Structures are given as C-alpha cells and as structure tokens.
C-alpha cells in the first residue's frame, strides 16, 4: 500500500499524460451514463456551459471517471476527488488507482479532468510553456527575468486566448466550482462529498462560496489559501516554513555522523556558499553555477534528500558545485496549469515589486525562506487575463453544511499549515488537524491521517479538539 501511495504522489508531481478512453456521452439534464474505459475505470461525460456567466451559451464536455466501490450493494456513497495541480486527473488515477483501495471499500471514487485539461474539452497549446533560463528562478537578474516575462506573455496569448477557443477567459476556480455542482447533480447526489488535495482545496473553497448549502462531508489536505489578498501575508508562512526546514536539516546533520557537514555550522556554511556564488559563480565541471541556480535547486523540506543536499553544500563550499548543476529529476506542470493558477492568484509580475517582496522576506527569513517570493512570479509573469477569480474571504458555512475536516503538514513549504488554519477559522464549521508531516498527507500514507479521514467520511465524526497526528 505504501508503495502505491508513493506512486500516486509521484504521478501527481510528474503529471503523466496518458490517453483516456472515451466514455458514454451524457444527455443534458440526465444522470451520468457509465461505460467501461479500461484499467478498471468507468467513464462518462457531463455537458456544461463554457462560461457559467452565460449558462445558455456554448457548451463544453467534462470527462468524468470513477473507480466503483468494490461492493455496490454495501457502498456508503460517492466521493468526488481532486488530487491537485491544477492538472488532469483521469490519467493519474489510471496509473495510481491502488492508492484508493481503502476508499473503494465504501465509496465510488469519482474524478474529472478540470475544464480545458486533457479529456475535458482539452486545450492543445501550440508549444510548451517557457522555463526560466538554466532553471534559475530564485532572484534572477532583471534582464533574464524580462526575457522570460516576454516569452510567458506570448505563451499566454497563444495558448490561453487563441488555442483556448470558447474557454478563453473562463479557466478559473469559480467556473470549476459550477462544473463540480453539475457533476454532483449528474451523480444524483443532494450534497457534494469531496476530497481535495493541494490545488483541489482551492476548488473546494470556491464551491463552498457559491454552493454553501450543498457542502456534504469535505476533507481538505494541504490547503492552498485562496482568501488572502495581501501577498506579503500570503508569502510569509511559506518563507517561515522553508526557513524552519533548513533549521531542521541543520539539526539532523548535527546528529548524524555520516552527514557530509557533521560537526560544522550548517547554516553558516550554506550562507557562505550563496555569498561566494553571488560574487563569482562556482566551478561545476565544464560550467559554473551562480547563487540563483543554487537557491533554485535547494528545498530542505524533503528529508529523504538531506544526505545528498549535505554533500552538495559541502562540495560547493570546497569549490565544486557540480551537484547543483545537475538537471532535476521530474516532469513539468501541464502547460495550462499556470493559466488557471494565475486566474485565481493574480500574482504581481513586475520585477521591482517581486524584488521588494524578496527584500521583505529576507528581513525575517534571511537564509532561504526568501526564495518564496519567486515561484509565483514565474507562473504569472506577463500572462494576460490574470485575476478573473481573485482571492476573497470565506463566509461561515450555513446550517446543515459540513462540518469540514482540514489537515496540514507542519513541514509543508508549498501549502504551509497557516493556510489551513486561516481557511478553517473562516468557515467556523470546520476542524483543523495538525500533522507532523509534509505535503499530500493522505496520499503519502500517513496512518494517523488516514484513520481520521476514513472515520470522518464514513460517520461524520471529526477528530477530537486538540487532536494531533505525530510523525508517520
């Protein structure tokens, strides 16, 4: 089971693109009709408006797939799932369906590719989204950044406006929330029972804003806060979590005699490496590596990578930064993801503004947390049509809705626990479960989390006040 769960987390990160067999077409206003489409899945389609602001306008079709409950006669209900991204869902489920074997003891597990992605009226971008030069995105030079911004703007026009066709300007979480409600109705459910992971929690926040009376049992894992309009307030929890992860790494190194930096002040060595690379790039075989590349390649939140990180820092301090020159292993985000992301999170892309964010973060997280200013800038730099559904505060859920279960990992620098706490507090009718862990807690196989989630989805019972899940 743990191997399967690690596989689904990897699948989400790699965003493996596989062809999805076509399912049965759903007549408008009628229940979903399912047809086998391979790999144990059943597929169907739901027709929805391209723009929910014009519900009688042109329509697109959403691809939907389900892993049926193993015992249909004894199943407890239907659970709509979104694993994050924003990205396609059906092809990920195909390669990682064993990770949901616990849930299919009780539920039909249903996923849908979000509008525009893969099988859901998929948008084919004419060329891949650009990447930063030499993958240096943390505090780049202004000239490099402006070249990237120009390329990303061109991509946003050609993909998000031209190739998107009727979906142009209608790729945001508000539209997805209405799509989710159409799927709920097609599934014959009075309320939506939902499990959202990472970006799937943004869709959940949108759904609760627009359909508060239809929220059933909802479990949110690794919450991305879509309620805060102050970018500095939004960035600070990320920066502080990454900074604490560097301190955890340093503490681990002090306790592990085989750590390449054992017996040294790890944070001091790290600072010296960055300062040296900022003055003059460090040799790395036939090339050199600058401070931006080193900071861009370092994430101290992954404990399994700590031994390699220690060796990389020690060698760079000794004058050989080859390990930081190596290409990272992993896949790209889907080309469309940044367009939806920046429709929901219209992050500033002016170089001077982002540098000012970096300067603010350096005051409180001077060693590495400050890098949090840059990832969103690279998503959104120059994109046209940003902010069609910007962050806004949540209202308390009404009578009969929820309650909602929310879990956050203490070491998660992407969706830090403060995001989950803010969202939980605004809803009122919700319970936050703090966890000693990182991102995607349920999918990562955290046994305490999975136990609480199963009990909640089956019975509605929340963890007790003050409940905490320790390290897995």
Summarize the structure.
With about 475 residues, this protein is an alpha/beta fold. Helix content is about 40%, strand content about 15%. The chain contains 15 helices and eleven strands.
Write the layout of secondary structure elements.
Elements: H1 2-14, E1 35-36, E2 42-49, E3 59-67, E4 77-82, H2 90-96, E5 107-112, H3 142-163, H4 173-186, E6 192-197, H5 200-210, E7 215-221, H6 231-255, H7 266-279, E8 282-284, E9 287-289, H8 291-296, H9 306-317, H10 322-325, H11 337-344, H12 351-364, H13 375-380, E10 404-409, H14 417-427, E11 430-435, H15 447-459
Parallel strand pairs: 4-5, 4-6, 6-7, 7-10, 10-11
Antiparallel strand pairs: 1-2, 2-3, 3-5, 8-9
Describe this structure in words.
With 472 residues, the chain is of the alpha/beta class. Helices cover 38% and strands 13% of the residues. The protein has 15 helices and eleven strands. The protein has helices spanning 2-14, 90-96, 142-163, 173-186, 200-210, 231-255, 266-279, 291-296, 306-317, 322-325, 337-344, 351-364, 375-380, 417-427, 447-459; strands at residues 35-36, 42-49, 59-67, 77-82, 107-112, 192-197, 215-221, 282-284, 287-289, 404-409, 430-435. The chain has a nine-stranded mixed beta sheet with strand order 1-2-3-5-4-6-7-10-11, sandwiched between helices. The chain has a two-stranded antiparallel ribbon with strand order 8-9. Helix 5 links the parallel strand 6 (192-197) and strand 7. Helix 4 packs across helix 5 and helix 7 (266-279) packs across helix 9. The chain is globular. The chain starts with a helix and ends in a 13-residue tail after the last helix. Residues 1-27 have low confidence and may be disordered.
